[in-house]
Glucose/Sorbosone dehydrogenase domain-containing protein (Paenibacillus bovis), 401 residues
Amino acid sequence: MFKMHEKGKIVTLALLLALPASAYAAEPQATAPAAEQTAPAASGDSSTSTSTDKESTSSAAKSKASLTDSLKGGYTTAATKLMVPWSMQFAGDTVYITQRVGGIVQVKNGKQTLQKVQTKKPLRVVGEAGLTGFVLDPNFAKNKMAYIYHAYEEKGEGFNRIVKVKLTGNTWKEQSELLKGIPGGRIHEGGRLAIGPDGMLYSTAGETNRRELSQDLKSYGGKILRMTTAGKIPKDNPIKNSYVYAYGLRNSQGIAWTSDGKLYASDHGPSGAPIPGGGTDRTGLDEINLIKPGANYGWPEVMGKETAKGMTPPLYVASSKAIAPSGIAVTPNDTILVATLAGESLKEFDPKTKKMTDVLTGVGRVRDVAVHNGKIYVLTNNTSGGDGDPGSNDDRLLILK
């Protein structure tokens, strides 16, 4: 194990090892950053970072050793003072980061630029709702298109929608609406977007603390959704004439594929909150699931290691102490990196052994993780209202070394 101190905390690296149009408004408890910020691409806290990373990573990616085995300890800080960052995407060496409070931060050549997002429905920022999911179109280099998942309000009720946007200058402008009416609220919003190996657009959708939605096939809540990049229902979806790809989920915030085409998803377990109609949920029992077309993952009928006919059990269940898994990423060796919020760590899950181990701790809440060009990128999430304890430079984009 490798340990180092940062601001009195310990960073632990396990060496076993991206029309009226409206610009997004800021969340009440957060102050939006200036339109442009500057920071050296490889700068970081002097006690934990170095200014350059000269180590070649291509050999590590190609070797039989795990990507995390190549880590030597520490990280560089590629971006600072992000406001509730949620998702990241890569176009070459440029990183794009959504902020839940609004806007997309471009990190390019060591410079941070806050880019506006213009949508036909104003952004709703309440609790966990806001601008969350984000994925670039496979032809982004040519068409500058991407897809976002954002909250909005209609007749006093909260919803989420998926829209296609185009980058023009420093503004992302809505081009078309792919899907609307995804349940919204204050919590359990879901919102992760990803393009699958099949070229389809996948989205997670939370049950917004309305448990019954997860088993309701007429609702998008508590589901993984699948569509074409034009927003159409694929003919081979498991439920005819439905976007629903998998259901019985609570608040899934991470999806990724291993090299054999298997889809994995993280899901938040019960949080100790009051149950509508009486009683109190248990705590913890967060999950990693192997997602199969049309499968029912049980919430709220079963949870944790409980089983029932017709329901698919999780591959991994956390203890009664919540880790709150969010974004996930697959390594070249087909292990799964898991960003955890309550767990305040980056973890690594091995689908073969079903073991979960720590990779990085001591940086607070971790919202998202990505593997790009043989390096591991991490987004912290300490500016998220009362949930986090932000430092002077939070939130940050980190590159593990």
Remarks:
- The chain has two helices and 27 strands.
